[in-house]
Amino acid sequence: METKVYSNDVEKALKVFKRQLQKEGLFREIRRRKFYEKPSEKKKRKQREAKQKRAKARKFSRRNDN
User: Fold this and answer.
1) What is the mean pLDDT of residues 28-46?
2) Is pLDDT above 80 for 63?
3) What is the pLDDT confidence band of residue 5, given thresholds at 50, 70 and 90?
4) How far, rounded to the nearest angstrom, does the alpha carbon of residue 46 sit from its chain's CA centroid?
5) Cα–Cα distances in angstroms (integers) from residue 14 to residues 4, 11, 28, 30, in the given order
6) Quick check: 4 pLDDT over 90?
7) 41/45 Cα distance (integer angstroms)
8) Contacting residues for 34 by C-beta, under 8 A, at least 6 apart
9) Which of 38, 16, 61 is closest to 6 using CA atoms?
10) What DSSP assignment string belongs to 23-62?
């Protein structure tokens, strides 16, 4: 990942960098990996995430069909 600093505006570049990390899901991943996750819990979490992803995709596909 790369963020360019224009006209010595480090604060703005840092803000952009943090937004990129947030968008990529790095903070969520770090929080998730903080503790050990049992394989059964991992499986349940992945199923839950897949269900949410399908519901979101369904919601947006309906919007575009109208």
Assistant:
1) 94
2) no
3) confident
4) 14
5) 10, 5, 19, 19
6) no
7) 6
8) none
9) 16
10) HHTHHHHHHHHTS---HHHHHHHHHHHHHHHHHHHHHHHH
CA dist list (Å): 31 to 13, 26, 37, 52: 24, 9, 12, 19
Does the structure show a pLDDT above 80 at 62? Answer: no
Residue with tokens 């839950």: 48
Exposure string (b/e) for 15-40, b if CB count within 10 Å is 16 or more? Answer: eeeeeeeeeeeeeeeeeeeeeeeeee
Q: What is the mean pLDDT of residues 54-60?
A: 91
The residue count for the chain:
66
